[in-house]
Design goal:
Layout: H1 8-11, H2 14-28, H3 39-50, H4 65-71
Length: about 70
């Protein structure tokens, strides 16, 4: 995984915006081997595919009431 953090004040300059565009075009050239996404999409993918069975959290990240009852908390 490669994370590219972007700050609008820095990447918004014409020369840097062109560099970002070139990088994205390069990465897209690998087809389905590269997934270009936002961090919320990474979190949703992890939650859907890798979250432990039987362990639930609400949208705020708190352990759900049903899960607390199951675990005796």
């Amino acid at each position: 995984m490669m994370s590219v953090g972007l700050h609008c004040r820095l990447v918004g300059r014409p020369g840097r915006a062109k560099g970002l565009e070139d990088f994205l075009d390069f990465a897209k050239g690998f087809g389905d081997d590269v997934w270009i996404c936002r961090r919320d999409e990474i979190a949703a993918h992890f939650y859907k595919h890798h979250y432990p069975d039987g362990f639930e959290r609400d949208h705020a990240g708190n352990q759900s009431k049903a899960n607390k009852l199951r675990s005796g908390l």
